[in-house]
Amino acid sequence: MKRIMILCVLALFLPGGTLEAMEPDWEFLKETDGIRVYRRDVPGMDFDAFQGKAIVHARIEVIGMVLRDVLAYPEWMPNCKETQLIETFDKQNVIIHQVNKTPWPLKNRDSVVKANTTITWRNGVFTVDLQAIDDPRVPPHPNRIRITKMSGRWQLTYLHRDQTFVSYMICLDPGGSLPKYIVKKNMQDAPVNMLRSLRKVVKNPIYLETADQSEDRKMIEEYIKRGLLTE
After folding, report:
1. pLDDT of residue 8
2. With a threshold of 0.85, does the pTM exceed it?
3. CATH number, domain at 213?
4. Alpha helices, H only, 69-203
5. Residue range of the domain that includes 163
6. Cβ contact 168:194 at 8 Å
């Protein structure tokens, strides 16, 4: 049954599939380097949400290690200048301060984001929900514009031992006086740039090694033994 589910996911992802029909609120825009990009309206927001979907040739627990390594985001996330951990509730729930570079003469943007991770290994799904929040521990900086309206999501779905289906969604209002068409163009490209970078960073030996020693790997191997996940 699990193999049938994997084949269905792959078939829907291939050109000519019916993924758009499964998510009627999302409009398919383009495909670049095997990354499919979608958009949809968001009630109460002046800007659309954009989503990218791709198959990443890496173990799901390796990608999980990458996403948990918040302080290393500037090394691979496009336009990420610096990150800081404000609070760690546990390894699944943190508050992050992130500064993003913006081309001169525009001011850089920053945000305080709560990241909540949910893992359902029985179904092979790893989800990180992102939400901008107010936090008095990080007051606005005079030389930056604070992003106060932002939500996002990473979702990893286990396909088999060395393949993961990855979805990245982002919706934000960058603030300031940027023309909407520029924001739209940048946001449309964001999922492609993010998933391209992810495909590269998952090859880093550090993440391969830490994933091998992780509790996530033990859980996955256990569910493989039970026949709920395939090799």
Report:
1. 46
2. yes
3. 3.30.530.20
4. 180-201
5. 2-14+24-225
6. yes
